[in-house]
Write a structure and sequence with these properties.
heterodimer; A: about 110 residues; mainly beta; seven-stranded mixed beta sheet; 11 strands; about 50% strand; B: about 110 residues; six-stranded mixed beta sheet; five-stranded antiparallel beta sheet; about 0% helix; about 55% strand
């Protein structure tokens, strides 16, 4: 079975620009969560979507938004990029919600210059 | 907000030595999950603990969940070079998963 896939793998953007990151969960998984991981730190929870509805939100500004589609894939959008948004963005899928084991994708490395 | 801390931040051991990382939450946890992240990789699920005082073993790895469900530990017996990576605990709830600060393990042959 295919694992969680994310695109693109790497991305370079300029301050003030907008970015969209994409995630496809494992087949049969209905929950997708997004995390930001800065080098040397643990993943920081951004959003959880379950059955296409926002289930949880971390402590991130409104510049961050996400959605989940009928096929359970998901997009993370970040507006007005700041240098501090440079990080590895991880997507994870789960059978139900974040109380269940998370299967992580390889991540998207975002660099903001 | 909820915080999950881990100690130590780094641990260097000789191959064959034991290793332990400790995880402490500022709030009571519904469950604790443990993940391993190899350098350049993504977190990989190891185990989940749900019950107060629960102990689970996976070969050389032993996981414990505290009686108050606010702390946990991971112990590796006789480390091997394949154990290299960062170990994260994470407090899981139905609406969020809060990762700890992680313990980076380096094993010297």
């Amino acid at each position: 079975d295919a694992g969680v896939t994310q695109s693109p793998t790497h991305l370079i953007k300029t301050r003030g620009q907008h970015v969209t990151l994409r995630c496809s969960p494992i087949s049969g998984h209905k929950s997708v969560s997004w995390y930001q991981q800065v080098l040397g730190q643990g993943p920081q929870f951004i959003f959880q979507y379950y059955e296409k509805e926002e289930r949880g939100r971390g402590n991130f500004p409104d510049r961050f938004s996400a959605r989940q589609f009928p096929n359970y894939s998901s997009e993370l959008n970040v507006n007005a990029l700041l240098l501090g948004d440079s990080a590895l963005y991880l997507c994870a899928s789960s059978r139900r919600d974040t109380s269940y084991e998370q299967y992580f994708g390889p991540g998207t490395r975002l660099t903001v210059t | 907000g909820q915080q999950v801390m881990q100690i130590p931040q780094y641990q260097h051991v000789q191959e064959g030595e034991d290793f332990t990382t400790y995880c402490n939450s500022s709030t009571t946890l519904s469950n604790i999950q443990w993940y391993k992240q190899r350098p350049g990789g993504h977190p990989v699920f190891l185990i989940q603990l749900v019950k107060s005082g629960e102990v689970k073993k996976q070969k050389r790895l032993t996981f414990q969940f505290g009686e108050a469900k606010k702390n946990s530990s991971l112990h590796i017996t006789a480390t091997q070079t394949t154990d290299v990576g960062t170990y994260f605990c994470a407090g899981g709830d139905t609406d969020k998963l809060i990762f700890g600060t992680g313990t980076r393990l380096q094993v010297f042959p």
